[in-house]
């Protein structure tokens, strides 16, 4: 097995978010909004031009998983072999905030098994892929879908939240098992939001403590860690059975995992005495909060998402990039095995200014490139950062050397990959490349 030639992962992502809003009538397909289906070749060119070797990426779930055991691989069959030929390592993002119409939403108890079957079929079809994020930001997806009422089931109860969370984490675990059955050396990078809640007043200490315990639930369950006593009561009071809880304790695959944590300016919150929350901006910062998560799970870390909007001075995003990179180096120098950094995403996003709650078509200047595929100043700065640090970190870093087989080094050619035929009559409206 060839070692990772870079020693440190510099990554970006092409976002494949697909939550539904307005009672399921509107699909917020971020790849469609950002023009990726039309311009995917140009997007991959940009990845290479910036000098990025790793890409968080996956086909849209809702047009690839089209029924129980039925898949439309047409888009994936174009894009994934192309990334392989380019030597870009894909960190496969299989489920990003939404499910196909036939599943409905995250309250559906059939979702974990259906998704695991899809993950296994995916791994069989594309066996050269080693790095996976089966379910992106499990905690955020459950919160926004089932506690805040923003997406998908659009519910607002603790019971709905616990139901969504247990289905999301179970889906992630079963998918990991299914992928490992095909690719025993697979590695899983959990991309999860790293949060902190600050009490505004002494009266807010209780609510803040509860929220700071709840922020760990998805990873506690995923990594088989016994949850705090208050969270155990919370889970059981809101529908999780003891057998379900013990499933999570007994089925973790922690030794195959890298803890990916995402950090934005919006990840820290003020909490009022009545439990209401509001943005606090950056108070502790990435390094402090990452140490909290690392001390809890003791896993290698990757900074899997960050960005900032390019503001009126056109240097705000560049300043944020430099600040986050300084935080990464601080974490590394403090002895935490941090293996990578990600600016997310490659291009500007659309409608994230409302958290994908409104279908406004408003462009958010958050990318390394704009939607005309021209590099922003932060894209140029990231390109320079990669050039400057790639030659340094492999020899001086305390990071783990990940046992990684690059796609083009995997035995066999594209033609050797198993061809899993789509079931007859399984027509779909999956996006077709028109470029």
TrEMBL record:
Domain of life: Bacteria
Keyword RNA-binding attributed: no
GO molecular function: hydrolase activity, hydrolyzing O-glycosyl compounds
Record's protein name: Family 1 glycosylhydrolase
Segments forming a coiled coil: none
Pfam families named among the record's database cross-references: Glyco_hydro_1
GO biological process: carbohydrate metabolic process
InterPro entries the UniProt entry points to: GH, Glyco_hydro_1, Glycosyl_Hydrolase_39
Record keywords, A-Z: Hydrolase
Biased composition (Polar residues): 425-435
Keyword Hydrolase carried by entry: yes
Disordered, as annotated region: 411-435
């Amino acid at each position: 097995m060839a070692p990772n030639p870079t020693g440190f992962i510099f990554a970006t992502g092409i976002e494949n978010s697909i939550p539904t809003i307005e009672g399921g009538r509107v699909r917020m397909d971020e790849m469609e909004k950002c023009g990726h289906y039309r311009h995917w070749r140009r997007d991959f060119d940009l990845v290479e031009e910036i000098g990025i070797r790793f890409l968080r990426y996956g086909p849209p779930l809702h047009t690839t998983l089209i029924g129980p055991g039925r898949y439309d691989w047409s888009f994936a069959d174009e894009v994934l072999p192309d990334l392989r030929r380019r030597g870009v390592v894909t960190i496969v993002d299989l489920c990003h905030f939404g499910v196909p119409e036939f599943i409905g939403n995250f309250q559906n108890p059939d979702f974990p098994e259906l998704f695991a079957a899809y993950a296994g079929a995916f791994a069989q079809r594309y066996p050269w892929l080693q790095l996976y994020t089966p379910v992106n930001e499990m905690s955020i997806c459950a919160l926004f879908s089932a506690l805040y009422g923003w997406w998908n089931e659009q519910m607002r109860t603790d019971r709905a939240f616990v139901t969504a969370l247990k289905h999301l984490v179970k889906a992630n675990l079963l998918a990991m098992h299914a992928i490992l059955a095909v690719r025993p050396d697979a590695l899983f990078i959990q991309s999860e939001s790293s949060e902190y809640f600050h009490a505004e007043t002494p009266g807010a200490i209780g609510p803040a403590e509860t929220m700071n315990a709840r922020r760990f639930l998805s990873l506690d369950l995923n990594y088989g860690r016994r949850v705090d006593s208050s969270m155990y009561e919370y889970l059981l009071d809101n529908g999780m059975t003891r057998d379900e809880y013990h499933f999570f304790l007994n089925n973790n695959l922690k030794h195959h995992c890298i803890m990916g944590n995402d950090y934005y300016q919006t990840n820290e919150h003020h909490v009022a005495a009545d439990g209401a929350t509001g943005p606090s901006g950056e108070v502790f910062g990435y390094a402090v909060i990452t140490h909290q998560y690392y001390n809890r799970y003791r896993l290698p870390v990757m900074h899997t998402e960050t960005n900032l909007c390019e503001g009126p001075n056109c240097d705000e995003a560049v300043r944020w990039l430099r600040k986050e990179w300084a935080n990464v180096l601080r974490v590394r120098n403090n002895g935490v095995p941090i293996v990578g950094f990600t600016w997310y995403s490659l291009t500007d996003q659309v409608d994230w200014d409302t958290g994908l709650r409104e279908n406004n078509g408003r462009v958010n200047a958050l990318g390394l490139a704009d939607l005309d595929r021209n590099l922003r100043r932060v894209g140029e700065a990231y390109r320079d950062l990669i050039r400057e640090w790639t030659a340094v970190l492999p020899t001086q870093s305390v990071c783990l050397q990940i046992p990684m087989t690059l796609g083009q080094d995997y035995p066999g050619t594209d033609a050797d990959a198993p061809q899993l035929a789509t079931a007859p009559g399984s027509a779909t409206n999956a996006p077709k490349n028109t470029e």
